[in-house]
Amino acid sequence: MCNDHSFEHDRQEFERLGLITRRQFGVLLGAGVAMMLPSVANAATVTESEVTITTPDGMADCYFVHPVSGTAPGVLIWPDIFGLRPAFRTMGKRLAESGYSVLVVNPFYRTHKAPTAEKGTATPISDVMPLARTLNETTEVTDAKAFIAWLDAQRSVAKNRKIGTQGYCMGGPLAFRTAFAMPERVGAVATFHGGGLVSTQPNSPHLEAAKSKAQFLVAIAANDDARSPNDKTTLKETFEKAHLQAEIEVYEGAAHGWCPPDSSVYNEPKAEKAWTRLLALYGKAL
What's the first-to-final CA gap in the chain, in angstroms? Predict the structure, then answer.
């Protein structure tokens, strides 16, 4: 799980060591800021909208983007602890331009509509941690089922193709539990600098994910690996025992939070490597 240490001390230390690429636009924060990402070759023309989805607990505000013609595999994106914001809309749109129908959700809709982090990634972790604590295994599973059901009701989503899900930071466990909740529907799971994937509890996200039928991509930040060096081994052994395909890699030189373009530790070369591996996963599993 994210904390002040992850997002400030580690940033300073990795920058001091010269292990991160700090892009100028990485410090552009807040609502309304357009985040730039490398363009997609042969990008599909897409249409985007703000949508409201009914769940057992209320109305979730989300962002939906998909190619304007035909059908495409659905993808459910769980943001990091700073929630649904311009950077994740940009990331979702880029994925849609690559040929997917993408839903980016506000996981904190029960408490607060997006934006939930007033200053983007510059928001103190202490301000958003209470939002994260409102979630639990039950809410994660019911939300996953509701969001996937909504995707399957959209004409742009291919019903004969599996659905993918991806999570960042605290969204990692939510992506794992999505595969657990919908084992027949979810074909691919990707997590990037996911926090709390492995625990000693019987309902640990990694144990529940192992009950799915999905293929996995687990991209681990170097500093997260330094703090929990056994997690990667546990993940590999668990997925191997379950006979599930899993690509698990520590991204050396990448600090926790390296993928979203509004992060102060955004690392474009490593983020692009993760993007390439994500497309490879979806290309074979969906």
Answer: 28
